[in-house]
Design brief:
Blueprint (H helix, E strand, L loop, with lengths): L13 H32 L2 H28 L2 H24 L5 H29 L3 H32 L1 H11 L1 H8 L16 H14 L1 H16 L3 H12 L4 H22 L7 H20 L3 H29 L5 H14 L1 H14 L2 H25 L17
């Protein structure tokens, strides 16, 4: 595993500090809703398949619209688009909170709001990730991506633990209201930015449908980008299904309450935070690094699936969280730093499709496995997916003699 030298801190840039502050407020609320929504669906249905459908509805728009929304992100004012998508997500969370608190919520209502949230996120996620390159540039970009991954990992630790406690004390509806209010953080941060200091690339002149084809062709012609994307698609489909696997393990394997469920989620976040604080921004983008992280991810998920009790499972999930954040942040940094500035939004959108959109297939699949075979099998399926990604990387290395190559050997333009 190769480590980069220290890069300049993006926190020296005012616009990035505002962005970072907004994310600190909002991202924990997102994980709060993730936990509450899963618990609500299990309360309404007690079905792993229903939970998988909920997660799928939230990610189908990412899978279907992802390439097109990436071209939109390359063509429009990203800050203005983010103001709209963040506001939409806040309103949807508040709507679910009101329905739950008034006692009228039904499963079909959760599904409709999950679909709406998925549409908003299909625009928000690639735009938000590509927007980081307009806030900072050069060596600071890798550090910024690492900091963002650490924020998400910290939220994965704090949000579920807090969510479990809030559900136990006040009920699931309060979690949705808190998440809706948390979007005021990024909205205020975006409104306060100095737009004159944004590093805006030249916008492509081609029509959106041509832009989508150009983005797909660009990745196809650069295997050093294509292979990490294919690996992420496999891992994303089977391994990154924690919204399904952890609730099933807590509810069906260990028979835990809401607090224990939240603590299992938080344990995974602890490992992710420790990995993010230690490694984020320092790992060079290499297929070798992705392969090692995928292998470690497979071992951790397999061990969690075989864990005899919740304490052992929590330790294994902490290691899984560490491997997952190294894997996802390295993939993200590799793609963003090696893509042409004018193509970055589209490349990031393909990453989001592979990472989040694959859940549209993986969520129901893993949920069905958990319901039919058992919750432990749903985690084991993730380990199998990681092994498949490792085999893909080894096959790629076999076609190119020598050590596993860096994830960008062709000379591409440096990031803006």
């Amino acid at each position: 595993m190769h480590f980069r030298s220290s890069a300049p801190s993006p926190l020296r840039t005012r616009n990035y500090r505002l962005y970072f502050s907004g994310q600190l407020v909002s991202v924990p609320g997102t994980w709060l809703q993730t936990v509450a929504q899963a618990w609500l669906v299990l309360q309404l249905s007690a079905s792993g398949s229903a939970l998988g459908v909920t997660v799928a509805l939230q990610t189908v728009p990412v899978l279907v619209l992802g390439a097109w929304t990436g071209s939109v992100a390359d063509r429009v004012d990203k800050r203005r688009l983010l103001l709209g998508t963040q506001a939409a997500q806040g309103l949807l969370a508040l709507a679910l909170g009101v329905l739950t608190l008034t006692g009228v919520v039904q499963l079909w209502m959760v599904w409709i709001l999950a679909l709406g949230l998925g549409v908003a996120r299909s625009f928000d996620t690639p735009t938000r990730q590509a927007f980081v390159s307009e806030l900072v540039s050069g060596e600071a970009l890798s550090r910024a991506i690492g900091i963002n991954s650490t924020v998400v990992s910290a939220a994965r630790m704090v949000g579920p633990a807090a969510g479990g406690a809030i559900i136990a004390l006040f009920g699931v509806g309060v979690c949705f209201v808190i998440n809706g209010a948390s979007f005021l953080g990024p909205l205020c941060a975006l409104a306060a930015m100095d737009t004159a200091r944004l590093n805006r690339p030249e916008r492509p002149a081609e029509r959106p449908e041509h832009a989508v084809r150009a983005g797909l062709g660009y990745v196809r012609d650069h295997r050093d980008l294509l292979v990490p994307l294919l690996m992420m698609a496999i891992v994303g489909t089977l391994a990154f299904e924690f919204q399904v696997t952890i609730p099933l393990m807590a509810h069906s394997a260990f028979h835990l309450g809401a607090t224990g469920f939240g603590l299992l989620y938080a344990a995974m976040g602890v490992g992710a935070v420790l990995a993010g604080l230690t490694l984020a921004g320092r790992i060079a983008g290499r297929v070798r690094t992705l392969t090692i992280a995928a292998a470690a991810f497979a071992v951790a998920l397999g061990a969690a699936a075989a864990a005899p009790g919740p304490a052992t499972a929590a330790v294994c999930l902490a290691f899984a969280g560490a491997a997952s954040v190294v894997y996802s942040s390295t993939t993200n940094a590799t793609l963003q730093m090696r893509a042409e500035p004018a193509m970055r939004g589209r490349v990031v959108a393909l990453y989001v499709m592979a990472f989040m959109g694959s859940t549209a297939i993986g969520g129901p699949l893993v949920g069905a496995i958990g319901e039919v075979v058992g919750p432990r099998a749903s985690l084991a399926a993730g380990a199998v997916g990681c092994v498949a990604a490792v085999l893909l990387a080894l096959a790629y290395a076999h076609r190119r003699p020598g050590a596993l190559p860096r994830a960008a050997r062709r000379p591409l333009s440096p990031p803006a």
